[in-house]
Structures are given as C-alpha cells and as structure tokens.
Amino acid sequence: MATRHYESNTSGMNFDRFLDKFDESALVTMKRHYWTAKQLLRTKLGKKEDEHLQASDASLDSKLTLFRSVRATSENLLACIENYHTFLLERMARSFRYSHLSWLPCNFRFPWAIMK
Description:
Elements: H1 5-9, H2 26-44, H3 51-97, H4 111-115
C-alpha cells in the first residue's frame, strides 16, 4: 500500500502533518515547504530523482551524522573537563584553608577532639 507523502515524513498521525518547528525562521520554513512540494510534484509527474543527487544526499547524511556524533562527544568531554576543573579548585581551596596547620606534629590532637 502506497503511503501518502506526509505520512512518509511523519508518524502517520494527522496532527503531525501540521506541526512546525518553532525555532525555525520564516525563510527556513519556506525553503523546507518548497523542497517538500517540489519532491511531491516530481513523484506525481513520475520523474525519477537523479542518482548523483541521491548519492550526494547519502554522503551529506553520513557527514552530518558524523558531525553530530563528534559534537555530542565534544560537549560531553567539555562537561567532564569543567567538572574536573571544579574539583581541582575545591581541592586547592581546601588545602589552602588547612595549610596553616602544617606546622602541627602528626600525633597532635586538638583539645576539642580529646574531650569527645
């Protein structure tokens, strides 16, 4: 059974057909609708898509997938570096806070620790 054009790009539910991306500008939305209409007319008139165009689309899709993967990995790595930086700052502040106690002998106990 042949699917309708909008069903191939959505979940098949009717309300999906009218959903727009809210973060898109008007120009991007218009370009997207233009290409959708152009593809619909191309299929209705029975014209085949150029095989070189399909190959370039596949190449572009693979490059975009790789780019998104590298971007996500980089963001995760940056978050880890920021966490490590925060850890080092806290560790440095703690050692600075207790550095005035370095003159105490190792077996020294504070008076309030003895009372407990």
